[in-house]
Structures are given as structure tokens and as C-alpha cells.
UniProtKB/TrEMBL annotation:
The keyword Zinc does not apply. The keyword Transmembrane helix applies. This is ECF transporter S component. Coiled coil: none annotated. It comes from the Bacteria. The chain crosses the membrane at residues 6-27, 39-64, 70-90, 102-124, 130-151. Keywords: Membrane, Transmembrane, Transmembrane helix.
């Protein structure tokens, strides 16, 4: 991996953690919370590929849990958000069009929602795992919407920079 890409990934992890710690919406039923984490993960996956998506997802997810007082979730978040980023990045790299993006967002969201439902069931109870599904669905829909706006804006900026 080139130093330039490693630097970009580290900056995206830092930005994702910072933004996610600014906006934390607690979910008392699952002792969890909703954040802007998906925006950083999805942006890294689309712009930098599956490995970057995995690294940004894994490290930002784990650090957010640690720094926000939910260390019991760290390992789960590392794996779940890492796989979430890897999934979108892999699919979009294979099909770099709107259809690939849509399929990637859908499968990456399913990875995250299913992963957290299982992790919540393991840490607490299966009803708590089921209760976690709607808030994780909302987090993904919001993250996808913000990512799409960001992606479209940055693509316009990058394309103008390439031609001037």
C-alpha cells in the first residue's frame, strides 16, 4: 500500500471518528447508539476501494466504541464495520456504476444490520437483537443519503480538477 493511500485512510478514520463522536444518538434498549460512521466507511469504499473501506470501517468503528464509553462493542464493531466497508468497496470496484453502488449499499447495510442484531443478541438477548434492527436500518439509510450527496459533490470537484 502506498503512503499516500495510507495517509488518506488514516485521515478518513480520524474524520469518521470525530464526526461520529459529535453526533451520537443513544439507543437505551440495546446500550448502543446511532452515528455518522457509515458516511466515512461508505465514502472510503467508493473512492478508495475495498481495503480502504475495510480499514476505515474497522478502525473507526472500534475507536468510536472505545472513546464513547462502549468498549464491549469494540471487537464487534471492528469486524462488522470492516466487513461493511469491504462489501461495498468490493462490489463497487467490480461494477463501478449506479447499479453496483445500489447493490453494494444494500449488501453492506445487510452486513451491518445482521451483524449488530447477532452481536446484540449475544451480548444481551435475542429480543434486544431484533429491537436493534430499526435503528441500524435508519443509520444506514441516513448514511447512504449523506454519502450519495458527498460522492456526487466530490466527483464534480475531482473531475474539474483533472481537466484544469
Amino acid at each position: 500500500m502506498k503512503i499516500r493511500n495510507l495517509t488518506r485512510i488514516a485521515m478518513l478514520v480520524a474524520l469518521t471518528v470525530a464526526l461520529s463522536l459529535i453526533v451520537i444518538i443513544p439507543i437505551p434498549a440495546t446500550n448502543g447508539f446511532v452515528t455518522l460512521c457509515e458516511v466515512g466507511i461508505y465514502s472510503a469504499s467508493l473512492f478508495l476501494g475495498p481495503l480502504a473501506g475495510f480499514l476505515v470501517g474497522a478502525f473507526s468503528g472500534g475507536m468510536i466504541d472505545l472513546l464513547s464509553g462502549y468498549p464491549q462493542w469494540m471487537i464487534f464493531s471492528f469486524v462488522i464495520h470492516g466487513l461493511q466497508g469491504l462489501t461495498l468497496g468490493f462490489i463497487y470496484r467490480k461494477w463501478p456504476n449506479f447499479k453496483g453502488m445500489l447493490i453494494g449499499f444494500t449488501l453492506a447495510s445487510l452486513v451491518m444490520i445482521t451483524g449488530y442484531a447477532l452481536a446484540t443478541a449475544l451480548l444481551y438477548t435475542w429480543p434486544a437483537g431484533i429491537i436493534s434492527i430499526p435503528s441500524n436500518l435508519v443509520q444506514n439509510i441516513f448514511g447512504i443519503a449523506v454519502t450519495m450527496l458527498l460522492y456526487q459533490s466530490l466527483n464534480k470537484v475531482f473531475s474539474k480538477l483533472q481537466y484544469h
